Amino acid sequence: xxxxxxxxxxxxxxxxxxxxxxxxxxxxxxxxxxxxxxxxxxxxxxxxxxxxxxxxxxxxxxxxxxxxxxxxxxxxxxxxxxxxxxxxxxxxxxxxxxxxxxxxxxxxxxxxxxxxxxxxxxxxxxxxxxxxxxxxxxxxxxxxxxxxxxxxxxxxxxxxxxxxxxxxxxxxxxxxxxxxxxxxxxxxxxxxxxxxxxxxxxxxxxxxxxxxxxxxxxxxxxxxxxxxxxxxxxxxxxxxxxxxxxxxxxxxxxxxxxxxxxxxxxxxxxxxxxxxxxxxxxxxxxxxxxxxxxxxxxxxxxxxxxxxxxxxxxxxxxxxxxxxxxxxxxxxxxxxxxxxxxxxxxxxxxxxxxxxxxxxxxxxxxxxxxxxxxxxxxxxxxxxxxxxxxxxxxxxxxxxxxxxxxxxxxxxxxxxxxxxxxxxxxxxxxxxxxxxxxxx
Length: 440
What we know:
The chain is mostly helical. The protein has 21 helices and no strands. The protein is globular. This is Aromatic acid/H+ symport family MFS transporter. One of its GO terms (cellular component) is plasma membrane.
């Protein structure tokens, strides 16, 4: 049946499918941090905090490999195929984690899982932005990326309900069940109209545009404007275009910003339960802090995206990163319960909330012909920070430094991220705030 002959479908349908796939990354973000207290007590494993931090970093090394490879692949073969492959790979990796018989086996399984996850988020963000109206790109991206903290919330709730009684393996086993979303993706997830147009498959792109009520002419105008540059006119796509003088400086700054943000996000999510236990809170209470942090991320993501569509991403990300830093400084002072919860909420809003907004910022900043590569490259290079985050947390926790440094270690890179945002060059025609788009 021809796509154009079917009844129109809202582009929000694509957003919700991307939401479901991005949720796997959020689940994986939390599952290791939630299970560390039990892994440290696993009979016969003799895990130290430093060794546990190293296993967490192996996961993120796999994710970096996946991101760097997935970005160009999504620009070459399309977003749809890569998203489905990533979900399948993640499910198999989670199963391997559930049956791991040693710390080494768990580390290898986490590395494999990370590679699969690398294919999911860049493709999902690129696809979401390409199906979003220009004035709602950040909002649509935020709705899809809300799957990231929502997946974390689901994992935290499951950990609270099951970890003490069922053990850590069940949480990884439940992650493997995500394979059952694949039939839904196979039958209902469309390909990127921008990708089809860029590849000369105009009829297919036109059919999808009619099916999802997107403005194909606007997409074509954006790409035509982009092709006027000397590098694009030579047929450059993917990494070749991304490393051209037109985009090179912006890419490096985005990567540095992602480095700082991911160091904070992954360091906190890996070690927050253990940090709170060291401060005297029981395991169940410590997991609740992780849950509050994820709720802060959801709220921050949705409100921040609404503001970014109206005022631009830079004006939102700077205060968000500063909120994260201030919240961590409050946590370092062991405040009373009300301020404690507000600080954990603010840490989630400013860390994970900022990181999800960065995906939308990158996706809207670059053209379709290198959008997947841009997200993959910036986030892939930035994942060096996510590798160092758990390692730094484990080192600080096992050192003789005072309690305050458990939080100072992550507050400092949050301030650095705010500074980097201010240096990113003026937005291109692809990243236009709502008010400016409306006036033009």
